[in-house]
Amino acid sequence: MRLMTHNMLSCNIKGVTNGFPLKIEAEKVIEKEVDFNPDFLRHMFAKIEWKDLVEAARSLGYAELPEDSPDATVIESAADESLLKKLHHALLELHLEEGALVCPETGRKFPVNKGIPNMLLHEDEA
Amino acid sequence: MWFLCVFYHRLLDFRKPEVEALAELFGEDESIQWRLPEHHHNDTPFHFVHLSSEEIAQNIAKRSILVKGMYELWGEGTCYEELKDSIQSFPDSRKLPFLTSDSTFRISVETFGKALTFDEQKERIHSLTYIPFEGKVNLKNPDHNFFLMEMDESEESNGLPPIVQRRIFFGREVGFADRKLLPTFQLKSRTYLGPTAMDAEMAFLMANQAKASSGKLVYDPFVGTGSILVSAARFGAMTMGADIDIRVVRDGRGPDCNVWSNFKQYGLPAPVALLRMDNNVPPWRSGLKEIFDAIICDPPYGVRAGGRKSGGRKILRGTVDPYTVPEDKRTGHIPSTGAYSLVECVHDLLHLAARMLVMKGRLVFFFPVLRDESGSEVKFPEHPCFKLVAVSEQILSSRYSRVLLTMVKVEPYSEEIEEAARLMHLEFRENHLKWLEEGNIHSSVFKPSTDSSQIQTESKTFKDPKPKYRGKYV
Question: How confident is the model at residue B438 (pLDDT cuts 50, 70, 90)?
Fold first, then answer.
């Protein structure tokens, strides 16, 4: 599971109001190379919650992203590729293969196996 | 400028919408106009299409599945004398740049509905000597490719209307299809297949309807084996998929036979994410919206594969309250799922798309329809955020078809719109309860025929009760 996915998910158990971001319990993390596509990254940049991405990356062992969200203009301009490359690495190249995503409010664990998070809710949670 | 667009004679309903979607993708900003050649009916392979530039025509032809080629028409007629007059009246300024002495060319003869001998073909090519070709002939790799196309008159056949008069076209090829695409991606050589894997040709058509391209994110909420996403990825899009069945998505049939290996097989980038989730209770964070450029899918119709959603049978019916799984059994617990009717499934899909598609993003999905004898107007699911731009029918059997619906998001999502959509959904569900049987189209399709008229006709003559129009079957 990539951090791009993690940035989109929350615990939607009935009654939970603060299900995002899910805490990451990492058991197995791997790095997989992905082709660099600046257009795609720019498109995604507008949609991600930056602070949560930075924290999630840290929990997987990557601390290169700047704390504060860069200005949109910095991302748009073709000049600073180094920042985009860091974003690329954090968003797409870090993989949580085995572990769990934990709801910050209820502690409910969503297992991640073979890179696939199981977000299915139990009968009493929907 | 007008181009002659020659289609493959297949999937007739899908031809024009594909060209229109691709034209939009390649920057066409005017609305597409179509014109039929004289005496031709709508199912003909020949159509005139108006596009702003040759470049757009070339790009469309190259990526299209159903376009055989795009041509700049130099002349047409019902006989070779008429053709000659027509070509000679085509302005020299448009012809001469392609007839220069330092270029190479080739003239091919194509006939539709008949075969010509080599001599007959040569004779026709030689009849074109009035065109001042100055370049050299190169049959393998010419700079310019010219086509002489002849379509004869034909009688009514299989329900297709007759072609009243022969028509001959002569044109310069500006674009042609990539013939290697389908053989490479055909399902019979795919590593991981499932019973409802989308065949390659249709998956590419869907990806074209969705305008999948580099830099875009395409989502399939019923990903299964990933057959639809493979085609989107081939066209450069980043892909993402989800399914409620974890075995299909996570395990496949082994470490080398799963969704990931399908992408690896063609050297395509693997999906950005594969998830197990229930579309009925999705795990998206509340602020998330307008993230997908396109949603392409084939929802379960309940005929060969039924949809599932959270909550066991009894819970959904209300005979049992949602039960709590004891702590010690929670980790390995597989939540029960219950029937998920087609109508409800599509409603959730529209809701998802309304929220998660970018503005002007496309939702492309299949919807099953029973082939009504009376040909009454079929109603499709609607949502106030969407405008329906294309409907293409693929006949599956004498009883039912599926239509590929293409919807474009034209209104942003809001609470008010969601309420309006909910009411639309309730109305739609009521109107369709009759033949959808709570989403169970399965029984309507598979019940034995009780049509008495069929039995009667068999005893009378061998004639079919209605003309077998195979046009859309192909």
Answer: very low
Instruction: Residue A25: name the closest of A88, A122, A104, A90 by CA.
Output: A104
* Residue whose tokens read 């003239």: B107
pLDDT digits (tens, 9 = 90+) for B167-188: 899 999 999 999 889 999 999 9
* A18 reaches B (C-beta below 8 A): no
Q: Are A31 and A93 in contact (CB under 8 A)?
A: yes
Looking only at the bridges linking them, the beta strands covering A94-102 and A23-31 are antiparallel
ipTM reported for the complex surpasses 0.85: yes
Are A37 and B238 an interchain contact pair (Cβ–Cβ within 8 Å)?
Answer: yes
**Inter-chain contacts counted by CB atoms under 8 A, chains A and B:** 110
CB contact under 8 A, B291 and A8: yes
Tell how strand B33-35 and strand B46-50 pair up: antiparallel
Taking only the tens place, the pLDDT of each residue in A46-64 is: 899 999 999 999 999 998 8
Rg of chain A (C-alpha set): 15
Contact B301, B368 (CB under 8 A): yes
- Count of other CB atoms within 10 angstroms of residue B1: 14
Instruction: Give B159's pLDDT tier (boundaries 50, 70, 90).
Output: low
Nearest CB to A118; choose among B276, B285, B310: B276
Identify the CA nearest to A47 among candidates B13, B230, B139, B284.
B284
Stated pTM of the model:
0.88
Residue A89, helix vs strand vs coil: helix
Paired strand residues for B105:
B137, B144
At B77, is the secondary structure helix, strand, or coil? strand
> Which of B263, B281, B331 should we substitute to test contact with A (largest number of A Cβ atoms within 10 Å)?
B281
Residue A119 tokens, joined:
């977000």
CB within 8 Å: A116 and B250: yes
Q: Which residue of B has its CA nearest to A14?
A: B281
| Chain A nearest CA to B3, separation (Å) | 33
Predicted pLDDT at B334: 74
Nearest CA in chain B to A32: B270
pLDDT of residue B155: 67
**A3: contact with B, CB 8 A cutoff:** no
pLDDT of residue B474: 53
Q: Which of A4, A84, A114, A125 to mutate to test the interface with B (most CBs of B within 10 A)?
A: A114
- Looking at the partner chain, which of A9, A37, A116 has a beta carbon nearest the beta carbon of B285? A9
Q: How far is CA B319 from CA A54, A122, B340, in A?
A: 46, 18, 17
CA B433 and chain centroid, separation: 28
User: Which residues in chain A have their CB less than 8 angstroms from residue B274's CB?
Assistant: 115-116
The SS3 assignment for B330 reads coil
Taking a C-beta distance cutoff of 8 angstroms, is the pair B151, B162 a contact? no
